[in-house]
Design goal:
It comes from Clostridium vincentii. The protein is α+β, with helices and mostly antiparallel strands and 255 residues long. It contains four helices and 13 strands.
C-alpha cells in the first residue's frame, strides 16, 4: 500500500523535519513520490516523480531548503500494476468550473466503481486515484451548475461526504484532499491513517513517523474536514469498512 502525508495548520509551520521522516519510508514505497504545499495566496507548489524518493536528487534539493506552509499533502507510491511515471505519481490536482483548485492523494484500491470509468479517457495517467479526483470535481461542477453559484463550505463538505460514502462500498479508500480552503480526511481501512494533534496544526500519516508525537487512529468510515486547525465537519459513520472478506470486482485500475 502507498503512504500519505498531510498537514493542516492555522499558520505557516516548518515542514522539513516531518517530510524527511516521511520520505524515509520510501524504501518500502519505491514506485514514485509527490509533494504539494501552498503559500499564503493559496498558490500551489507541486512536484511528482516516477522514481523512488530515496533516488531523487530533486527531492533532496527541495528538502535542503526551508519549507514553510499552512497546508501540505505528500505521497509515496507502492504500485502493484502500472508504470512508474510522473503522471502516475500523487498528489493529483485540477480546477473546478469556478476556478477552485482541488488536490488529492489516495491510498487503496478501487475494485468496483463504474462511476469512475467515464474518466479513464480524460485522465493524464493510468491510476484510479486520478479518476477519483476527476469524478469528485465533476460532482462539484454539477452541484455548482444546479445551484447557479459557487458552493459554500457546508455544501462542498456534503458533496465530498456523499462521494466517500459511495466509493467506500467495496473499495479500499483512504483520501487526503484540499480545496484551497478546506482539508478533508477519510479512511475505511483499519490502521491506514493516523493523526497527531499539535498546538497549531494536525499532521496525518499512513504510518506513524519516528518522532515524539502521539499518534491516534483516524476514525473509520467518517469524513472529517478542517479549516486551519479547526474541525468544521464530521460526517456520520458510513459503515463501509473494507475487510479482507469484502467481495471484490476488479476494474483494472492501478494505484
Amino acid at each position: 500500500m502507498c503512504e500519505l502525508y498531510g498537514i493542516i495548520s492555522n499558520k505557516p509551520i516548518s515542514l522539513n523535519e516531518s517530510l524527511k521522516l516521511f520520505y524515509k519510508h520510501s524504501a518500502q514505497n519505491p514506485k514514485g513520490w509527490g509533494l504539494s504545499y501552498w503559500n499564503d495566496k493559496s498558490e500551489i507548489t507541486i512536484y511528482n516523480e516516477g522514481k523512488s524518493a530515496n533516488d531523487s536528487d530533486l527531492l533532496q534539493d527541495i528538502l535542503s531548503h526551508p519549507i514553510e506552509s499552512k497546508v501540505s499533502i505528500g505521497h509515496i507510491r507502492t504500485a502493484t500494476v502500472g508504470l512508474m511515471s510522473d503522471k502516475n505519481s500523487h498528489p493529483f490536482t485540477t480546477n473546478d468550473c469556478t476556478g477552485r483548485r482541488w488536490t488529492l492523494a489516495h491510498n487503496g484500491n478501487i475494485y468496483t466503481g463504474s462511476q469512475l470509468l467515464p474518466f479513464r479517457d480524460k485522465q493524464l495517467g493510468e491510476t484510479d486515484s486520478e479518476c477519483i479526483l476527476l469524478y469528485l470535481v465533476d460532482c462539484i461542477n454539477k452541484k455548482t451548475q444546479e445551484k447557479g453559484n459557487p458552493l459554500n463550505s457546508k455544501e462542498r463538505c456534503e458533496v465530498i461526504d456523499s462521494i466517500t460514502k459511495d466509493l467506500s462500498q467495496g473499495n479500499k479508500l483512504t483520501l487526503l484532499i484540499y480545496d484551497t480552503e478546506q482539508f478533508y480526511a477519510y479512511t475505511n481501512i483499519q490502521e491506514l491513517l493516523y493523526v497527531s494533534s499539535q498546538e497549531d496544526y494536525y499532521c496525518f500519516v499512513s504510518v506513524p513517523l519516528e518522532n515524539s508525537f502521539f499518534w491516534n487512529k483516524v476514525p473509520l468510515n467518517i469524513l472529517i474536514v478542517y479549516s486551519g486547525n479547526e474541525q468544521i465537519y464530521h460526517s456520520q459513520d458510513h459503515g463501509n469498512e473494507f475487510l479482507k472478506t469484502t467481495p471484490m470486482k476488479f476494474h483494472n485500475f492501478t494505484l
